[in-house]
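Collaboration report, partner site 2.

Our partner group contributed sequences for two proteins of shared interest, and the home lab folded both. The records are reproduced in the order in which they were received, starting with the first partner submission.
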Amino acid sequence: MSEDLISKIPTSRRLVLDLGMGDGQLVANLSNKEKDSFHIGIEINPDRFIQASSSIKNQNVHLINDNFEKILPLFKDNSISQVFYILPDPKYIDKNHKPDLERFYKLLYNKIKKHGTFILITEITNELFQPVENKVLNDEISWITNFFESLGYVTLECHEGYPEEYTTSFLRTFSGDLERIRILYFEFIKTNK
């Protein structure tokens, strides 16, 4: 089923992918602003998928209710212009899962076009849910940038906070306690084939 859907994606349009789209707010906002692009949102949670499906009716959007690890290999290499991953599950960002991270993000790198971008917005928390110290934050920034650069990505931008146009309901919730939940924004680019 998903292979059929992927085969129907218009190849003449800029392709934007949202991994784990949640309620679809980002997909909806971007698809309204970028009418010439084709937007795909992937969400494994059926309730969130239904919520997104009921609110997004744009013709330049396709939503998939499945595991993005299963869907991503179906895309052709060098076919995706931009990928968003907002507040990833810890298994997709935690350094304790490095071998799995390498496999997944290398695959993602191959699917992104030359000069395509990968936007990652993630949270840094303390295990005891205490305020996150600057040293801990800076160590995480270094680890994340070094990890992605080791796979071939080039860091374009990295800072605390996130652009307002990328707001999601989960980001709004997580942004309520800026001392204990510190939000980091990364923009990476693929500069070679």
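Second partner submission, folded after the first:
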Amino acid sequence: MATFLDMGMLEYFNIIFYFLFLFVLVFAVMQATKFPTENKNLSAILAFLIAVLVIFSSSTRDIISIITPTFVVIIFFLFFILLIYRFMGANDADVRSIMGSEGGTRTFLLIIILIIILSTLGKTFFSGTAETTENGEMNISGKNSEVGTKGEDALVGTLTHPKLLGLVLILIIGAFAMTFISREAQQIIMK
């Protein structure tokens, strides 16, 4: 039965929504960063071309369809958290100090965004069907997935792989070494 609330027909227009979303996003980033040029017409043409090129890839459409609702929910909650701060009497300077680099909120949000992006990439590129052979081995058909079985399992398998964990450990040790070496150099210069 057809109703006014039936959204099934909108599925046929998804590609137009993807195109508009990408065009607006790329154009806004180009205008905010003034990266290629300050000319709005050239930025609009470049954003149009990038959006047209990206929407022809089915994997990027899958990424956009998975990641967009998650970011909308995050932005929705952030908006209401900021609204609650404002209702409790905080001014703009207080909100900036909380959301700035001093409070660590920006780092926390960046980590959450990175986790969302990685899990979306895992769902998109590492999903496939897992089949068990007669020997009990797992064969994965569909998309390429070397470490995990499929979907989120592939992401978890990749993130817990010993080579990746060793690389992360080496990077952490290197970051601490650079921090302590530069701190000692600053103390020597201050004396």
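Feedback sent to the partner group on the second submission included the following. Strands lie at 128-132, 138-142. The helical segments are 14-33, 40-55, 58-87, 92-99, 105-125, 152-159, 162-190.
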